[in-house]
């Protein structure tokens, strides 16, 4: 093969087509199946957006009812999965708990009988919806066991987000909170060939099963350069402490060559299209919980990063403080990203399986020349 240019990190490499979403850095826009994500966040619920990602169209009233009925029937955390979670020490990171729980759900899926069943489109659609329905129970239970609180059973009379918050906090919070949370789920749902989604596609391309692909994607999302950034953002904000200390903190951090979590993006170079919508949701929470100090700190660090490095926030920057105000433990933030992104991951898994080609790039060898044992 010709010595072609190495594209480290596959930066700028177009690896395949996708019809699921379009990220456009020129216009700083993101569309899910053709709809601008800002419109979806304003006019739809996360259930409708999940349906759109999987089926390509927004659901009719009838389709949404059937979809919700099935999703609500699958919300229960079964005893087997719960037993495995209980075996994991509280020192285990919640991302490792979520990853393990998905593995268990896959391991006990009796429809996974042979290779054909691993890529069966109807079975994968059902598995996708089941994972979407069960992840809130896993995340909510993990937060509660860390606080020595009892499991709260799901309710089938609540929307996805209201039920998620009810299982976590034992009550249905104010509509402002439910709405801000639902907006975050919509904004986190899908983002083309990001590292965790591409991981899921690589695993799917070998004709492995959906749960293996989602488990791999969770592993990729955990890293602070990707989904782990929303947890890391909260630690940064707590480290800075107050708005007046932002500039000095940043000077020191940059002098130490630190990556400032929640800023920058591989594709968006003039700011992440989702940030204005998530920042507006954060502002509703700041008003609701009367925390102007959080907004001042947020704005001060953003301004310092813009003036010092001209690097703009990504979605993780407003999401971190929003989840903090809602009441989630900081190390539960990336599992929340998993609960949302499982819809995008599974849409890509099904797309990859439908028109598959084994993903296997080349490497330019840089080791020692051929030699022989004397
Ligand atoms: C997500 O891909 C997706 O779509 C991901 C995501 C999704 O929806 O799936 O959008 C979700 O993961 C958002 C990103 C969350 N990660 C973080 O917030 C971590 C902090 N960000 C950086 O690590 C970085 O911006 C990346 C990893 C996000 C992108 O890095 P790139 O494209 O590889 O760019 P780079 O690291 O080569 O940076 C270019 C320059 C460098 O300076 P030089 O070494 O050339 O002097 O910009 C600097 C970097 O040092 N830089 C930063 C910075 N981001 C870039 N410097 C300080 N802090 C930062 N955050």
Write the layout of secondary structure elements.
Layout: E1 21-24, E2 29-32, E3 35-36, H1 37-43, H2 46-55, H3 61-73, H4 79-87, H5 94-107, H6 115-118, H7 121-146, H8 160-169, H9 175-188, H10 195-205, H11 210-222, H12 229-240, H13 246-255, H14 275-288, H15 292-309, H16 316-326, H17 333-354
Antiparallel strand pairs: 1-2, 2-3
Helix pairs in contact: 1-9, 2-17, 3-7, 4-5, 5-7, 5-11, 7-8, 7-17, 8-9, 9-14, 9-16, 9-17, 10-11, 10-17, 11-17, 12-16, 14-16
Bound molecules: s-citryldethia Coenzyme A (SDX).
GO molecular function, one term: citrate synthase activity
Family: Belongs to the citrate synthase family.
Active site: 265, 316
List the defining traits of the structure above.
binds s-citryldethia Coenzyme A; about 375 residues; about 5% strand; single chain; mainly alpha
What would you say this structure looks like, in words?
With 374 residues, the protein is an all-alpha fold. 58% of the residues lie in helices and 3% in strands. The protein is built from 17 helices and 3 strands. Strands 1-2-3 form a 3-stranded antiparallel β-sheet. A hairpin with a 4-residue loop joins strand 1 and strand 2. Helix 4 runs antiparallel to helix 5 and helix 5 runs antiparallel to helix 7. The site of s-citryldethia Coenzyme A has 22 residues, from loops. It catalyses: oxaloacetate + acetyl-CoA + H2O = citrate + CoA + H(+).
